Amino acid sequence: MFKKILVANRGEIACRVMKTARRMGIATVAVYSDADADAVHVDMADEAVHIGPPAASQSYLVADRIIAACKETGAEAVHPGYGFLSENAGFCERLEAEGIIFIGPKPKAIKAMGDKITSKKIAAEAGVSTVPGFMGLIDDAEHAVRIAGEIGYPVMIKASAGGGGKGMRIAWNDDEAREGFERSKSEAASSFGDDRIFIEKFIEEPRHIEIQVLADAHGACLHLGERECSIQRRNQKVVEEAPSPFLDAETRAAMGAQSVALAKAVDYQSAGTVEFIVDKNRNFYFLEMNTRLQVEHPVTELVTGIDLVEQMLRVAAGEALSFGQADVKLNGWAIESRIYAEDPVRNFLPSIGRLTRYRPPQEGRLGDAVLRNDTGVAEGSEISMFYDPMIAKLCTWAPERLDAINAMSEALDRFVIDGIEHNIPFLAALMSHPRWREGRLSTGFIAEEFPDGFAPPSPMAGERTVLAAVALAVELLRRDRLDRLTGRLAPHSGELKRDWVVRLDDDYLSVSLVEGMISIPLEMDIRIGDADPVTVRSSWRPGEPVWEGDVNGRTVAVQVRPILNGVQVAWQGVAANARVMLPRIAELDRLMPVREAPDTSKMLLCPMPGLVVSIAVTTGQEVKAGEILAVVEAMKMENVLRAERDGMVAKINAAPGDSLAVDAVIMEFE
Predict the structure, then answer these.
(1) In whole angstroms, what is the distance from residue 161 CA to residue 471 CA?
(2) What is the DSSP letter of 294?
């Protein structure tokens, strides 16, 4: 076994690999850019080597610097994680030439499967079901339109060297085919250095289900079951689970057998994933093979008990697999939620900044469930514009699917992140969504269920009860502490007001304290309106970000954040600004005028921090609704900004290459 390995990556996957290496007694070397000098993975490793500026193209993607770091530290092997150089056959060949082992498949397999056109041909020859499409390269936008028409709309336009949802567009007509070709080609060139494009039929109502394979250098090859990855946004996975709630044993076996056949066809060694599109009748079609460790590998580990990183290390060291296909059992259910630095209320636009507070739920047992959190950040870490926006991967395991979902919901309620925007509110709301809970999924789930984007749902009756009870409990404890401060001009009367009004956003709720003393631990009975009394118990102390306790016998974890004259309360995807006041104050509060937001209707604002790729119009130009105005790149994704209405460009305030903050004015209109 290796004595020292270098992890050629950053963030949570670098930390994930180091955890297993440390358990196996293997020393680790981290590499880092200027932006990651204080990163968690750097502190976690036994050694660390600086490899360049923040841009990945000048650091994490420079093979020469990775190899130099190996030589400097004496690392025997390189684990690439995912992304960056993980599927770069040229990098593997360079390592081999230097006598350094690549912890992954051989270059032959990477080349064969890394090119989507070649991989589909090999898959077809190996007897794997493939999607109808054009396997040649697309020359230009008009060629794309012609091919799309021959295949029949809708079609999927893809970068041949793509991955992670980049360089992919769905086209439903000729205009979208032209634009999709241009955008996919541009994204592919900037993300992968390879702008080749191909087109295939887009399967409607599809599920994205993948099979985990594992093979050694001694001829053994097996699969570890499937992962359901249908909850996606812009072709980027958001929530994954294992196993799939859709597959039956027969389909699972068939998909597994075809995946193993494909892996054997390219003499695969290491862990890899074969991805399929599955239609509503359980017909499945080969999509691509990822010759690396997948982001969502933890759910497979949780249901099989097999550490995939450990197996990758052992295979790379020349060991044979110590188990066979018959030994692989799927036990229970696992869910993974990807925690991203993005604002779901602003159409999931990237958010950057410092984590002023980062308090993930504690790993380990959570009732009958198990909680796991793979992360690469800590409180104080910086989320920059240079890399992927992932903060953490929160995973839960339980004997049954709904139990795993409920555990995830509870864990998300306890996950506290401040300083940036994040997608936890969306994930928390998703866990309560009936279609998700029933397992009625497709890759269009988010677009179909949230066609106008995500907005935190308004609290229903039961949720209002919980939020109002927590808000009142927090406010009464706060007032009690103020009343008991030493040095008061007048002593505390000891009188506790019984009648209150809790304002949840614009909803005023009359709340009365039926019985109870305000102390820690708190126990009180309250009545909201004319409803039956509600018992509230908690040991929460002011300043703690999560209020944990019982409301009418139900255990809840509600996040509380101070705002002006109140607190923001959030629970299971529902959030509200809560202000607790006496009835007379509430009467006056209803009369207060509402401040109107400034008019920005004649401005194009930058929706996220990012880099201006192009400006498509000029000063004085008339534009029509839907016309492209600018393209802004953020966290490796290009975002097209369009005109919302007809108008004339009066002033352009930005130019290609400019770095803009959120809400920066790109252009103004007459």
Answers:
(1) 52
(2) -
Q: Which of 288, 296, 336, 633 is catalytic?
A: 288
Task: Give the integer Cα–Cα distance in Å for 75 and 9.
Answer: 15
Question: Cβ distance 571 to 558 under 8 Å?
Answer: yes
CA distance 436 to 246: 12
Residue 392's alpha-carbon distances to 167, 383, 565, 670, in angstroms, are 24, 12, 32, 44
Q: Which of 449, 597, 568, 588 is nearest to 504 (CA)?
A: 568
Please name the residues in contact with 552: beta carbons below 8 A apart, sequence gap of 6 or more.
Answer: 465, 534, 535, 536
- C-alpha distances in Å from residue 665, one per residue of 346, 539, 609: 16, 47, 12
Number of residues that this document lists for the chain: 670
Note if 228 is an active site residue: no
Cα dihedral 489, 491, 497, 500 sign: positive
Q: Return the structure tokens found at 534.
A: 């509600």
Strands (E), 66-196: 77-79, 101-102, 133-134, 155-163, 166-171
Measure the CA–CA gap between 69 and 382, rounded to whole angstroms.
24
Whether the bond between 521 and the residue before it is cis, its omega within 30 degrees of 0, is: yes
Confirm if 160 and 116 have CB atoms less than 8 A apart.
yes
Question: How far apart are the C-alpha atoms of 294 and 224, rounded to whole Å?
Answer: 13
d(CA 62, CA 67): 9
| pLDDT tens profile 223-242 | 999 999 999 988 889 999 99
Q: Which of 406, 416, 331, 411 is nearest to 371 (CA)?
A: 411
* Residue 626 confidence (pLDDT) above 80: yes
The pTM is what? 0.84
Q: Can you read off the two tokens belonging to residue 106?
A: 């051989």
Query: Nearest to residue 335, comparing CAs of 457, 435, 436?
Result: 436
Q: What is the 3-state secondary structure (H, E, C) of 591-605?
A: CCCCCCCCCCCCEEE
* Residue 193, phi then psi, degrees to nearest 5: 70, 20
DSSP state letter for 652: E
Residue 144's φ and ψ, nearest 5 degrees, are -60, -40
Average pLDDT, rounded, for the chain = 93
Q: What's the pLDDT tens digit per position in 196-227?
A: 888 988 887 899 999 999 999 999 999 999 99
What stretches of 214-364 show up as alpha helix (H) in DSSP?
249-265, 297-304, 308-316
Please list the alpha-helical segments (H only) found in 152-278: 174-192, 249-265
Q: For 337-358, what is the mean pLDDT? A: 91
Most confident of 257-261, 600-604, 621-625, 654-658: 257-261
Question: Cα separation of 333 and 476, whole Å?
Answer: 41
Q: Is residue 551's pLDDT more than 80?
A: yes
DSSP state of 486: T
Strand order of the β-sheet with 637-642 is 637-642, 628-634, 610-615, 659-660
CA angle, 161 as apex, 287 and 138 as ends, to 5°? 90
193: confidence class by pLDDT, cuts 50, 70, 90: confident
Residues facing 7 on adjacent strands: 30, 79
